[in-house]
């Protein structure tokens, strides 16, 4: 059973409300969190007004074949990388027809992966204006790292949803 970040549901409620208030839709592409971001959003009343869908892309083949992450990028840097996170978010936005894409990729353990340390996480955000990624280094158990990554993804989503001039 996954231990959830204590503020996860509050952050999800703010994201759902923010998206609905602005008339924006959201899609997810999740590797590390394996659908947790979409599930926490869907647990929130009203989520059907903003959540378009999501892709669990644990394998590189799904990142490439479904989300459109360039295979040469995956071959060059591996799955745990900021450029990959940005491309995943853009792919989710595109294939789900959403205004905003959010993605997660990283290493929860128990072993390092692809030259990346346990706790290395990248969150991707994509909008019509382009895509970006954000690097994190979390500590804790596998479940804690996944929960922290989910909270970070929702925090980044809130930043995008904040009205211009308002801090997230």
Characteristics:
6 helices; five-stranded mixed β-sheet; Maf protein; alpha/beta; 168 residues; globular; single chain
Describe this structure in words.
This protein is of the alpha/beta class and 168 residues long. It is built from six helices and five strands. The chain has helices at 8-22, 36-42, 60-65, 71-77, 82-96, 142-161; strands at 26-30, 51-56, 100-106, 120-127, 130-137. The longest helix is centred in the C-terminal third of the chain and has 20 residues, at 142-161. The radius of gyration is 15 Å and the shape is globular. The relative contact order is 0.19.
Quick overview:
By secondary structure, the protein is of the alpha/beta class.
Q: Given the C-alpha coordinates, what overall shape results?
A: globular
Strand content: 15-25%
Q: What are the low-pLDDT stretches, counting only 5+ consecutive residues below 50?
A: none
Structural class: alpha/beta
Annotate the secondary structure layout.
Blueprint: H1 8-22, E1 26-30, H2 36-42, E2 51-56, H3 60-65, H4 71-77, H5 82-96, E3 100-106, E4 120-127, E5 130-137, H6 142-161
Parallel strand pairs: 1-2, 1-3
Antiparallel strand pairs: 3-4, 4-5
């Amino acid at each position: 059973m996954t231990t959830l970040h204590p503020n996860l549901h509050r952050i999800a409620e703010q994201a759902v409300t923010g998206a609905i208030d602005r008339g924006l839709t959201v899609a997810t592409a999740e590797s590390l969190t394996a659908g947790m971001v979409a599930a926490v959003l869907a647990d929130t009343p009203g989520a059907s007004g903003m959540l378009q869908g999501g892709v669990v892309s644990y394998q590189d083949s799904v990142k490439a074949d479904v989300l459109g992450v360039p295979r040469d990028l995956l071959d060059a840097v591996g799955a745990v990388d900021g450029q990959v996170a940005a491309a995943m978010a853009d792919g989710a936005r595109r294939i789900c027809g959403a205004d905003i894409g959010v993605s997660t990729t990283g290493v929860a353990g128990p072993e390092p992966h692809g030259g990346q340390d346990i706790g290395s996480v990248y969150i991707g955000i994509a909008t019509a204006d382009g895509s970006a990624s954000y690097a994190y280094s979390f500590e804790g158990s596998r479940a804690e790292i996944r929960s922290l990554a989910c909270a970070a993804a929702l925090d980044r989503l809130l930043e995008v949803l904040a009205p211009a001039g308002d801090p997230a």
